[in-house]
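[09:14] KT: can someone run the structure on this one? pasting the chain below
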Amino acid sequence: MIARSRKTVIALLSGIATLLVAGSAFAQEVGVQYVERDKWIGIAAGFGIALAAFGGALGQGRTAATALDGISRNPGAAGKLFTPMILGLALIESLVIYSLIISFSLLGKIH
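[09:31] RB: done, structure tokens below
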């Protein structure tokens, strides 16, 4: 199962890298067309925030499910599990917020 998901992630990242590199093959003179570049910046910003939101949602779901599973097995450990769970959720959410900031900065480059 882990090897299959690892292969899926590698294939996804390879596809994204191919899409990002392929744009330079069709490069034109400087200043000729900003519309083409702006379109790809918009698409990159959209994919970036979508992937970050998807990954963050998966991470937060697994974190909450695991914490609730641990609490259901040992209700006395609820206090010890709560703080690390909240810390983990905050760190996961911070990665999504970083992606949002990067997407906004990319969108700011559109003329």
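[09:33] KT: thanks! Helices lie at 2-25, 34-73, 78-107.
[09:34] RB: yep, looked fine to me
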